[in-house]
UniProtKB/TrEMBL annotation, chains A, B, C, D:
Keywords: Hydrolase, One-carbon metabolism, Purine biosynthesis. This is Formyltetrahydrofolate deformylase. Residues 5-86 form the ACT domain. HAMAP family: PurU. The active site is at D222. It catalyses: (6R)-10-formyltetrahydrofolate + H2O = (6S)-5,6,7,8-tetrahydrofolate + formate + H(+). Pfam families: ACT, Formyl_trans_N. InterPro entries: ACT-like_dom_sf, ACT_dom, Formyl_transf_N, Formyl_transf_N_sf, PurU, PurU_ACT. Catalyzes the hydrolysis of 10-formyltetrahydrofolate (formyl-FH4) to formate and tetrahydrofolate (FH4). The lineage of its organism: Bacteria, Pseudomonadati, Balneolota, Balneolia, Balneolales. Its EC number is 3.5.1.10. It comes from Fodinibius roseus. GO terms for biological process: 'de novo' IMP biosynthetic process; one-carbon metabolic process. Gene3D superfamilies: 3.30.70.260, Formyl transferase, N-terminal domain. GO terms for molecular function: formyltetrahydrofolate deformylase activity.
Length: 278, 278, 278, 278
């Protein structure tokens, strides 16, 4: 038997939990967990309910719509019946880690395909029996390239697109097409470094910590809502290359965590911030 | 305006959240947060509800009692109107850290008194204007000493007793008298070391991590329900003394965290395990 | 050009660094790093010197032998020209992570072969073009099984044997045969749990942290010198299975770290403790 | 008996360790630890030698000067005979933590005085018997204020000045006067936030980690060489204020670590980066 998840969010008012749980109770749902949060800054209510069952009864969403304010968002999802497409460029660590976890059942979704603008990662993808598509950007304008990418992505109609070190920037049009469905992993530092070769800058600044941030992709490059972050200690003995190496470990771990949170439908986005029910 | 907390736990059954939130809704309570958990192993339901108000209306508990199974535990508490007594022996780090946090308003309770079997910590306590009581164990049998301790403790009638490196073992009678109300901090290692001088043993074993565990005190020495844990890295350059020094940092941080969780009523104990709503 | 490492250890006395660096200077070696440590408890001196070069001149070791006390241990190794054999049972996370790192050049050694008592991991090994040997223990006495294992291992003559969740215990004879060359990964908890199903015990005790320890294998099961340790936070929402899942992440990371430290010859063992020059 | 430390740095060339340890050996020094590092980027050699003794023999520095390149920096220090002055504004957490550690002997120096532009921290300082000086900036131009600060600081002639949440910016003249001797603690985020109220910005961005950086103060505000950094996890339930609260824990821990590293003379600055021999 699968697990169903209901995502509800709306402006806060008294009695929301009562009204929601009344509907769920009327349908006799076997609730496994129930998480709520009210963002006091924006007075916004958010609730995730997981229950056991093969499917969410049709009436539940209808009755919730009646019981809740008109501007409530109600979304349902079946955990474990999702699919993702992974995009990468040449680096194997994030893609490989996802494929490995997928191979032993830790990713609650199908990895339908890997898409890359280069061919380096083909063998790795095929080793895990995942279709690989090379969509080279060579000689193409950005939109022409994205059109080809879209064509491959849409063939699979994935729930989410995971950028596992995909090193190109998307146009706002592309981002909008898959709004809220693209996740990226990005190295992060204290302090932050702007511009080329951040690990070189981090080295020159002598940072003692390097990190990674998994976030949704929005028009603002590397600025979308943050899903997960972590850091590792480094020191003066690390060259810029060794910092980048160490960075791989935290990048792959943070991305895998974000992908699992996403696929278990544990993330809400409100006002540019995420609410993550771990 | 204060913050009220309701703690409810009972065997799980369908509709509990619905019935509870119905009562809260009927009383028009302004709920700030609502956290639930069902321990699938024991089929036990646990819920913490925080709401704003000067006090919990009498009727709420009465109506909850009617709405819930007969064996439900319902407890209410006012955050910020609690008191603790701290017990210590000679080491200043945990006591000092609590007093310091208390001085800038981070401990949501009054520290009514410090009790020690030695006199070393008197100046520190007085520096923060907290009454200090030396209750020496010299020449006393364990129960006679505990009788004197009880006499001082009961004068303050504290909500909780915090053992901030109090280095003596209590009798089961003493523990029972304050059941569920005594918190201790204990160094912890991977692997664990039994017997005298654990930091010496940890050094000889070459551990790379040292930790601390804050837990409720039960008859089983150092074995009560765990509230919080953390670790710090160490290496071969640390002597046993330096490991103990490093251990102080993690001990004081973990104890302070546990005390705050306790005073915000975020902890449930069920089947010897804690459920901590962070 | 490769990197050479000299490992020297002996009872401490004045002038050791001077005498050692005099020899190195006489041979004009281009020293990249030099790390020393004196274990004050046992008065033992330990030094790791890395220098660039294709090989260590013969005379260096001879002259060091002359310059140092008679009981000095002098060992040299070429980084990057080592080989390992990985042993596993059925779980893919540690083996897969090593193979993945190997595939992108992060393991400074050849992974010559994977040996398992089951067949589950064959596809994974072959996906990374590493020979796989199933050596079943079914119907064999422990020594007869180990004889078959030895036969396969010795065919490759590896520098180190990495137990990547190999779930069987070795006889002292087997351990002695590869003394100081077998590394294991072991889940670890605060407190430690003895006996079967430690994750179940950790769950029942409500631990807030789970960890992993990489260590050399000695006759004392899970008690050999510790190389690396790390932990992850868990909480009451983790079932025993989810704790075990989380444990996989820390197990694979700690094992990979230990293997890299080993292959870069950063580890000394003295008096049952490791000195790890990170 | 005290502990002496020699700090040596110069452009790298072959035989430096040999030549240095020859001098130390000639004087029969009892070396406790010896740490070297060559920054391959700038080809710069750095060495810290600790040895036991009441003082460093005069001849040692003279002979080292002869043995080493003309542009070598040689510095000696006696651990445990240093002094610091702490500057703060109104927040007690960093100052209090330092005073507490000082009270139980964890700071290897005298805290000679506390200086603040406000009076809030006077009671705390006096509680630990440390002289407190209020030097208000009210109605004073920056330089006039700094002149008064200088006058108090120079009365104590401290080895280092520790900014424990001192919330004012210094002129380059002030910074230059105490070049390499002022340490600051600064909240840090991933990503970094510029401008007012960083915790508010961090909250609005939904960061999952907050951190702190201890660094030397240079003319570039909050941009001096980094000594130590650490982070803590936060989540959507943290308000901006609660993030700031959590930030206090990491700020005080990182500052205390930096102060100890400084007073044990474990830090070199080269090319704007620190080399920290932990």
């Amino acid at each position: 038997m699968g697990k169903q998840v209901l995502h509800i969010d709306c402006p806060d008012e008294k009695g929301l939990v009562y009204r929601i749980t009344e509907v769920l109770y009327n349908y006799g749902l076997n609730i496994v967990s129930n998480q709520e949060f009210v963002d006091a800054t924006s007075n916004h209510f958010v609730m995730r309910t997981a229950f056991e069952g093969d499917r969410t009864p049709e009436g539940v969403v209808r009755d919730l719509n009646k019981a809740l304010p008109a501007d409530a968002n109600i979304r349902r999802a079946e955990i474990g019946h999702r699919s993702i497409v992974v995009m990468a460029t040449k680096e194997a660590h994030c893609l490989g880690d996802l494929l490995l976890r997928y191979s032993y059942g830790e990713i609650p979704a199908d990895i339908d395909a890997v898409i890359s603008n280069y061919g380096e990662l083909e063998a790795l993808s095929r080793a895990f029996d995942v279709p690989f598509h090379q969509v080279s950007h060579k000689g193409l304008e950005r939109r022409a390239h994205e059109k080809q990418l879209q064509e491959v992505i849409d063939r699979y109609d994935p729930d989410y697109i995971v950028l596992a070190k995909y090193m190109r920037i998307f146009t706002p049009e592309f981002v909008n097409r898959y709004r809220g469905r693209i996740v990226n992993i990005h190295h992060s530092f204290l302090p932050a470094f702007i511009g080329a070769n951040p690990y070189r800058q981090a080295f020159e600044r002598g940072v003692k910590i390097i990190g990674a941030t998994a976030h949704f992709v929005t028009e603002d490059l590397d600025e979308g809502p943050i899903i997960a972050q972590d850091v590792l200690p480094v020191n003066h003995t690390h060259t810029a290359d060794q910092m980048a190496n160490a960075g791989r470990d935290v990048e792959k771990t943070v991305l895998a965590k974000a992908v699992k949170l996403l696929l278990e439908e544990r993330i809400f986005i409100h006002n540019g911030r995420t609410i993550v029910f771990e």
